[in-house]
C-alpha cells in the first residue's frame, strides 16, 4: 500500500487544525456561551436560537456571494495559497477576539462570530480545492476521508482541555467563572488552529492553475460569467451540485444548530459537552470507514447511506425528549457526519478540471452556502412561529429526500472532464 506523501499528510493535517473551530466554536462551547449570555440579557430561548440561525444564514450568504469570484481569481498561478492565508488569518484572529467581547454583549458575540465563520469557511474553499494539487484522482476518496477522520481525532484534544476547564470552573474546583473558562476555550481554539496549519502553509503548493492575465479582476469576472454559462453543459457536475445543494443543507443545519436545540430541550451544558466529545471520538473511525467502503462500493452508494442516516436523524429528533434520546441522536449523526462531507468533497474533485479547481469549488461553495442559508432560516422561522425547534428540525427531512432523488441521476465520475473554453 502506498504511503502518504508529505503533501498529502500536510493537507490532511489541516483538518486536524481547523476541526477545533468546528467543534468548539460552531457546535459546542460558543453556542452554549452565547445562549447563556443572551438568556442573562433577557432574550427568550426560542428567540436566541432564532438569532443564532439568522447569524449563520448571514455568514453563509456572504460566502455564497464572494466564493465563486474568489475561486476564479485564485485559479491564476500563485494565488491559491495567498487567498487561503488571508481567510485563515481572518478566522483565527476573529476567533481569538471572541474571548475579549465585554460580558453580556450577545450582539457583538454574533457579529464577531460572523467574521470567524467567513474566515473559516473562506479558507476551506481553497483548502478543498488544494485536493487536486496533492493527490491523484484514484486516491481522492481515501485522502479526503482520512482528513475528516484525523480532524475528528485532533479536535478532541483541545475540546477535552476546554470542557475540563469549563466543568472544573462550574464545580468551583478551579478559581474561574464558567464565562471565563469559555473565553479560555476560544483562545485555545485560535492557537490550535494557527499552530497546526503551519505544515499546510509550508508543504502544500498550487500545481494546477492558469496563466495570469493583465487585469485579473476584469478577467476573473469574464471567466466567471463564462463558467456560469458553461456549467450547464457539464451535466454531471450540475446535477451533483443540485443534489448537494439539498442534502448538505440538512447536514450543515444539524451541525450548527444541534447544541442550541439540545439546550432548548433542557439538556444541561455539561451533558451536551460530554455528548459532543463522544460524538467526535465515534465520528473519526466512521469517516475513515466511509472512505474505505467508497473504494469497495463506490462513493455514490456511500452517499446514499449517509443521507438515509440523516433522514432517520430528522425523524428521531422530532420525538426526542430526554438526554438519552440526544445521546442516540448524536451517535447516529457521528456515523455519517464526516463520511458524507468527505465523499462529497472527493466526488466533486474527481469531476472538475484540475486547472480550474478553485473556480469550480467556488460554485461548490455557493451551492453549499446558499443551501446553508435556507436550512437555518427554516429552523429559525419555524422555531419562532411554533415556539418549538422540533418542527424546524423535522422539516429538514424534505431536503434530504430531494437530494437523494437528484443524486440517483448523477453517474459515478469515471470520465475525465476537460476545459472547453
Automatic annotation (TrEMBL):
<dbReference type="Pfam" id="PF11700">
    <property type="entry name" value="ATG22"/>
</dbReference>
<dbReference type="InterPro" id="IPR036259">
    <property type="entry name" value="MFS_trans_sf"/>
</dbReference>
<feature type="transmembrane region" description="Helical">
    <location>
        <begin position="272"/>
        <end position="290"/>
    </location>
</feature>
<feature type="transmembrane region" description="Helical">
    <location>
        <begin position="360"/>
        <end position="383"/>
    </location>
</feature>
<feature type="transmembrane region" description="Helical">
    <location>
        <begin position="302"/>
        <end position="320"/>
    </location>
</feature>
<keyword id="KW-1133">Transmembrane helix</keyword>
<keyword id="KW-0812">Transmembrane</keyword>
<feature type="transmembrane region" description="Helical">
    <location>
        <begin position="12"/>
        <end position="31"/>
    </location>
</feature>
<feature type="transmembrane region" description="Helical">
    <location>
        <begin position="107"/>
        <end position="127"/>
    </location>
</feature>
<keyword id="KW-0813">Transport</keyword>
<dbReference type="InterPro" id="IPR050495">
    <property type="entry name" value="ATG22/LtaA_families"/>
</dbReference>
<feature type="transmembrane region" description="Helical">
    <location>
        <begin position="148"/>
        <end position="169"/>
    </location>
</feature>
<dbReference type="InterPro" id="IPR024671">
    <property type="entry name" value="Atg22-like"/>
</dbReference>
<feature type="transmembrane region" description="Helical">
    <location>
        <begin position="326"/>
        <end position="348"/>
    </location>
</feature>
<dbReference type="InterPro" id="IPR020846">
    <property type="entry name" value="MFS_dom"/>
</dbReference>
<feature type="transmembrane region" description="Helical">
    <location>
        <begin position="51"/>
        <end position="71"/>
    </location>
</feature>
<feature type="transmembrane region" description="Helical">
    <location>
        <begin position="237"/>
        <end position="260"/>
    </location>
</feature>
<feature type="transmembrane region" description="Helical">
    <location>
        <begin position="181"/>
        <end position="201"/>
    </location>
</feature>
<feature type="transmembrane region" description="Helical">
    <location>
        <begin position="83"/>
        <end position="101"/>
    </location>
</feature>
<feature type="domain" description="Major facilitator superfamily (MFS) profile">
    <location>
        <begin position="236"/>
        <end position="421"/>
    </location>
</feature>
<feature type="transmembrane region" description="Helical">
    <location>
        <begin position="389"/>
        <end position="407"/>
    </location>
</feature>
<keyword id="KW-0472">Membrane</keyword>
<protein>
    <submittedName>
        <fullName>UMF1 family MFS transporter</fullName>
    </submittedName>
</protein>
Amino acid at each position: 500500500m502506498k504511503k502518504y506523501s508529505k503533501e498529502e499528510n500536510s493537507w490532511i493535517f489541516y483538518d486536524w487544525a481547523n476541526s477545533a473551530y468546528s467543534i468548539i466554536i460552531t457546535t459546542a462551547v460558543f453556542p452554549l456561551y452565547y445562549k447563556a449570555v443572551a438568556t442573562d440579557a433577557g432574550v427568550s430561548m426560542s428567540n436566541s436560537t432564532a438569532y443564532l440561525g439568522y447569524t449563520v444564514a448571514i455568514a453563509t450568504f456572504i460566502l455564497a456571494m464572494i466564493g465563486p469570484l474568489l475561486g476564479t481569481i485564485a485559479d491564476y498561478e500563485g494565488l491559491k495559497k495567498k487567498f487561503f492565508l488571508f481567510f485563515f488569518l481572518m478566522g483565527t484572529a476573529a476567533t481569538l477576539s471572541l474571548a475579549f467581547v465585554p460580558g453580556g454583549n450577545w450582539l457583538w458575540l454574533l457579529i464577531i462570530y460572523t467574521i470567524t465563520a467567513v474566515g473559516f469557511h473562506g479558507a476551506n474553499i481553497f483548502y478543498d480545492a488544494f485536493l487536486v494539487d496533492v493527490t491523484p484522482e484514484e486516491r481522492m476518496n481515501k485522502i479526503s476521508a482520512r482528513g475528516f477522520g484525523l480532524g475528528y481525532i485532533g479536535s478532541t484534544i483541545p475540546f477535552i482541555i476546554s470542557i475540563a476547564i469549563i466543568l472544573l470552573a462550574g464545580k468551583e474546583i478551579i478559581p474561574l467563572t464558567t464565562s471565563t473558562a469559555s473565553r479560555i476555550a476560544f483562545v485555545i481554539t485560535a492557537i490550535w488552529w494557527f499552530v497546526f496549519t503551519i505544515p499546510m502553509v509550508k508543504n502544500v503548493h498550487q500545481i494546477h492553475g492558469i496563466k495570469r492575465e493583465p487585469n485579473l479582476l476584469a478577467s476573473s469576472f469574464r471567466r466567471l460569467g463564462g463558467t456560469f454559462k458553461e456549467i450547464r453543459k457539464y451535466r454531471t457536475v450540475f446535477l451533483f451540485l443540485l443534489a448537494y445543494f439539498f442534502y448538505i443543507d440538512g447536514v450543515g443545519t444539524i451541525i450548527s444548530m444541534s447544541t442550541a436545540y439540545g439546550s432548548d430541550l433542557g439538556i444541561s451544558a455539561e451533558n451536551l459537552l460530554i455528548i459532543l466529545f463522544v460524538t467526535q471520538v465515534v465520528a473519526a473511525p466512521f469517516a475513515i470507514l466511509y472512505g474505505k467502503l467508497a473504494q469497495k462500493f463506490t462513493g455514490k452508494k456511500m452517499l446514499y447511506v449517509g443521507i438515509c442516516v440523516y433522514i432517520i436523524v430528522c425523524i428521531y429528533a422530532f420525538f426526542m425528549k430526554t438526554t438519552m434520546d440526544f445521546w442516540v441522536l448524536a451517535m447516529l449523526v457521528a456515523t455519517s457526519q464526516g463520511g458524507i462531507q468527505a465523499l462529497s468533497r472527493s466526488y466533486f474533485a474527481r469531476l472538475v478540471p484540475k486547472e480550474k479547481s478553485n473556480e469550480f469549488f467556488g460554485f461548490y461553495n455557493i451551492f453549499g452556502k446558499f443551501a446553508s442559508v435556507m436550512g437555518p432560516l427554516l429552523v429559525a422561522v419555524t422555531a419562532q412561529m411554533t415556539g418549538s425547534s422540533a418542527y424546524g428540525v423535522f422539516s429538514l427531512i424534505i431536503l434530504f429526500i430531494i437530494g437523494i432523488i437528484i443524486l440517483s441521476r448523477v453517474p459515478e465520475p469515471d470520465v475525465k472532464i476537460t476545459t472547453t473554453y
